[in-house]
Amino acid sequence: MSSPSIQRVSTPYSGVVKLLRLCELASDDVLVDLGSGEGAIPALAALVFGVRKAVGVELDPALVGKSRETASALRLGVDRVEFILGDMFSLDLGKFDVVTIFQSQETIGRLLQKLFAELGDGARVVSYLLPLGTMSPLKLVRPARIEYPFYLYKAPLEYLGDDEAVRLLQEIAGFAEGAEREWALVSASIRG
After folding, report:
1. Which CATH number covers residue 154?
2. In terms of pTM, does the model score above 0.70?
């Protein structure tokens, strides 16, 4: 039985630093990048931002190998950066302070239950390109010269109310080409 093809899109290097800044990283943070590709986010998180440890999880063995070679060339040992060949759904997210995601809407939908169940209070999640369903982001940022927005969330995750969801969608649709914009949602509540 063949595995489904995966469309791979890299996070542009110009966006990686801005994404990591949005994560509000601290020296005692442990970061995981779900679908780490060539490993730029974990490597820069450790090398430039000085997190305690950065982990990349990737299904493609060639990309994991390349990530490990890059980390070695940067003299980053496995105590600082680790690349795991495996499925993000089998990883315990509860041991991470920061989770970065650049995934399809289908994958994000599958991840939501896992994020709800496993993230500790105060853990940050940054999604590149797509929001986490109708979760309430703390910030929505569209950096200049970056094609897609970043969404910052903080656990415990909360659902957007109807009015907030409509406003968020209008703001996303209203992005000006090439302009840097940032929004902060000041309130959100769970409505059931």
Report:
1. 3.40.50.150
2. yes
